[in-house]
């Protein structure tokens, strides 16, 4: 039977989770600890299959903690739960080696589903968070598609704009007239759906069209 370790400094939260998990016969709680130090000490002794942890442990860098856990036991799986369900936060946790992420406002059924999915398949992201991630990816894809309509010359102009060059400097660098530069800028603004050179530069940097 898979063994689960709870890591959470908040007793009320931890006791609530223990009550929920106690009704399942698919895994057992082998240990619950309050701090990073306790977790790292007991990790080798208790040998859990899954660590369920609060992301905001006191005086602790969650990302560094996750790396330390994985350094001690590469096989153990980690499920993080938090009030912060921003995409940036989730991606940071996943990059550190987390196997699953749940919002603290998820349902009991989804909490249990997440645990089971991680133990069986190795990965689970709460459905609502997963939808947000897909929507963000779609938006980014849509943004990048706008850039695909730029001509080679327009891209050259955009690069120089992003680097802070004025129209006269762009004209000299590309050996074209300032009027032609203005025409290219008008076309760039229209295709990227922006209103000025600052917005165009931000778009270029945000979508990795130009290295900062």
Protein model, in words:
- With 212 residues, the chain is α/β, with parallel strands linked by helices.
- The protein folds into two domains: 3-133, Response regulator (Rossmann fold), CATH 3.40.50.2300; 149-206, Winged helix-like DNA-binding domain superfamily/Winged helix DNA-binding domain (Arc Repressor Mutant, subunit A).
- The chain is 58% helix and 13% strand.
- The chain has ten helices and six strands, in the order E-H-E-H-E-H-E-H-E-H-E-H-H-H-H-H.
- The chain has a six-stranded parallel beta sheet, with helices on both faces.
- Strand 3 (50-54), helix 3 and strand 4 (77-82) form a beta-alpha-beta unit.
- Helix 7 crosses helix 10 (197-206) and helix 8 (167-174) crosses helix 9.
- The longest helix is centred in the middle third of the chain and has 21 residues, at 127-147.
- The model has no long low-confidence stretch (mean pLDDT 85).
């Amino acid at each position: 039977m898979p063994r689960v370790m709870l890591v959470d400094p908040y007793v009320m939260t931890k006791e609530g989770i223990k009550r929920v998990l106690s009704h399942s016969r698919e895994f057992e709680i082998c240990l619950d600890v309050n701090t990073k130090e306790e977790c790292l000490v007991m990790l080798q002794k208790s040998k859990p299959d899954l660590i369920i942890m609060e992301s905001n442990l006191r005086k602790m860098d969650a990302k560094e903690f996750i790396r330390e856990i994985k350094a001690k036991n590469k096989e153990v799986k980690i499920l993080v739960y938090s009030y912060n369900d921003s995409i940036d936060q989730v991606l940071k946790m996943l990059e550190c080696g987390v196997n699953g992420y749940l919002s603290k406002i998820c349902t009991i059924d989804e909490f249990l589903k997440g645990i089971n999915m991680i133990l069986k398949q190795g990965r689970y992201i709460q459905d609502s968070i997963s939808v947000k991630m897909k929507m963000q990816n779609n938006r980014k894809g849509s943004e990048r598609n706008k850039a695909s309509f730029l001509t080679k010359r327009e891209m050259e102009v955009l690069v120089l704009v992003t680097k802070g060059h004025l129209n006269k400097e762009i004209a000299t660098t590309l050996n074209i007239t300032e009027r032609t530069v203005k025409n290219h800028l008008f076309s760039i603004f229209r295709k990227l759906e922006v209103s000025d050179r600052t917005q165009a530069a931000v778009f270029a940097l945000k979508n990795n069209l130009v290295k900062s």
